[in-house]
Amino acid sequence: MQDLKKKPKYLMTFTVGLDQKNNIDAAAKKLSEDFQIMLFHYDDRVTEWDEFEWSKDAIHVSVRKQTKWWYAKRFLHPDIVAAYEYIFIWDEDLGVENFNGDKYIELVKKHGLEISQPGLEPNNGLTWEMTKRRGEQEVHKDAVERPGWCDNPRQPPCAAFVEIMAPVFSRKAWRCVWHMIQNDLVHGWGLDFALRRCVEGNSEDGKAPWEGVRARCRNEWTEFQSRLNKADEEYFAHVGKG
Q1: pLDDT tens across 159-218, in order?
Q2: Are residues 144 and 234 in the same domain?
Q3: 171-180 and 209-241 are packed helices; what angle lies between their axes, rounded to 10 degrees?
Q4: pTM for this one?
Q5: Which helix (H) or strand (E) holds 88?
Q6: I need a surface site. Which of 25, 38, 62, 201 has the fewest CB within 10 A?
């Protein structure tokens, strides 16, 4: 074993199959030593990545036929990734020709963004206007969508919206989002419409949003334990009568 030459500040994760190795290689080469790369392998093919020098320093997790939010819930617990200032949870097929990791972090810090994503090229068949890159602005936080797409101009997808394909979370925001993710969540549909709850400030009782999410999780766990104990009692009562 040897000590790290430089301690990474940011965690870049991809959920990958070997078919996308060239795209991931291109993305990895856009990152400085400040980034720790972590690959979640859904096809169980890990050793084939050894051809890339950066892969030898990457963290590899292999569980077949899962999706990125399944991996994120199980392997990116907030306490485990607390050493990183920002956590990137990206799809494997993103175009990164115009992406620069260090410059992106610079903008995120400059504008105090807790949850963000890089702007996408306008000609790439975008679903949402919010995700479109605007050359005249460093960042934007609202957009005008097509008629009927926004019930409220201050809510997603017209404002407070980051698409789940390439989100970037601050350490603080990820602690909240992680609690929001359900254990049986597979594809993450609708999660991007709920992310705003983790950056909207304090809740009505003065507590941080993530604390409310955690409290609900604990309440659900207590309820589950209660139901389980009741089921045990009924089972043993039934067996005792046999």
Answers
A1: 666 777 889 999 999 999 998 888 776 667 778 778 888 886 544 455 665 566 666 667
A2: no
A3: 30
A4: 0.76
A5: strand 86-90
A6: 201
Q: Give backbone dihedrals phi and psi of 35, rounded to 5 degrees, phi first.
A: -105, 130
d(CA 221, CA 156): 30
pLDDT in tens, 53-78: 999 999 999 999 998 899 999 999 99
pLDDT for res 204? 47
Residues 126 and 226 in one domain: no
Bridge partner list, 159: 142
Whether residue 218 contacts residue 179, with contact meaning beta carbons closer than 8 Å, is answered with no
pLDDT at 136 > cutoff 70: no
Could you tell me which residues come within 8 angstroms of residue 195 by beta carbon, excluding any fewer than 6 positions away? 115, 160, 161, 162, 167, 177, 180
- CATH of residue 134's domain is 3.90.550
Same domain, 102 and 151: yes
107 by Cβ neighbours in 10 Å (0-12 / 13-18 / 19+) ranks as middle
Task: Kindly write down the DSSP assignment for every residue of 106-137, as one continuous string.
Answer: HHHHHTT-SEE-PPBPTTS--S-GGGB--TT-
Please state the domain count of the chain: 2
Structure tokens at 101: 């990791």
Domain that holds residue 232: 201-241
State the burial class of residue 4 (Cβ atoms within 10 Å of its Cβ: 0-12, 13-18, 19+). exposed
Tell whether 214 is covered by a domain. yes
